[in-house]
Design goal:
2 domains, 12% strand, 221 residues, 6 strands, six-stranded parallel sheet
Length: 221
């Protein structure tokens, strides 16, 4: 992908696995959650829930794996297991602040579109001092569909009155990458440990694949 800076008016970032390095925390949460129920984490579980938001993930978990559980209890348990990490320890991905600075200095609007919940991402953004960069924040809990639909991206683009071809989307999840790519957004696939097995598919369904944000900055500065 190569574009002139004048062609891009809006950048949409995913949060977990893209801007922040939270993947290992969620591995631990899933492991602890299922271990408490005498189960191993199902092999396809991470991919099944990665793009759909916490409430939808809780519904899927109940319906498919834990039929005797209460959805609100699942959500409360996940929140308890993960909140400390978001409040205190989850770090930014390499050069994440630098790319936010770079895009902001280019006059490009920056938005966050996440599958996480406000109770977790809000304290994390404030602690990392990056909340100031986002002109608009939306999560899938305010959408009818997860990131297997372009709804969340379309809502952001509509908010800024920008067409998809003038938007760059940064994502790490293959499902989200495919969705944005098929919906005519400019897609930058960001490496995360979860994407290791999907690099070929990720590359085929994005305009640019980067292992860290400095690669993007060097390409477009």
């Amino acid at each position: 992908m190569k574009f002139n800076n004048n062609d891009i008016h809006l950048a949409i970032f995913d949060l977990d696995g893209t801007l922040i390095d939270s993947t290992s925390l969620w591995f631990d949460v899933d492991k602890e959650f299922f271990m408490a129920r005498g189960m191993d984490v199902p092999p396809t579980y991470a991919k099944e829930i990665a793009h759909i938001g916490l409430k939808a993930a809780a519904i899927l978990t109940k319906n498919k794996y834990c039929p005797n559980e209460n959805i609100e209890d699942i959500l409360d348990e996940w929140n308890r297991l993960s909140l400390k990490g978001y409040e205190q320890s989850i770090p930014l991905k390499e050069n994440a602040k630098e790319i936010l600075d770079f895009l902001s200095n280019q006059g490009i609007k920056i938005s966050l579109a996440t599958a996480n919940s406000k109770a977790l991402y809000e304290p994390c953004l404030k602690r990392l001092n990056i909340d100031k960069y986002f002109s608009f924040i939306i999560d899938v809990n305010s959408c009818k569909e997860g990131k297997d639909s372009s709804e969340i991206y379309d809502k952001v683009a509509s908010h800024f009155n920008v067409s998809p071809n003038n938007v760059v989307v940064f994502e790490d999840s293959l499902t989200a990458i495919k969705t944005a790519f098929k919906s005519n957004y400019n897609v930058v696939a960001v490496y995360d440990i979860n994407s290791t097995k999907d690099i070929d598919k990720t590359t085929a369904n994005s305009h640019l694949f980067i292992r860290n944000f400095q690669e993007f900055i060097d390409l477009y500065k």
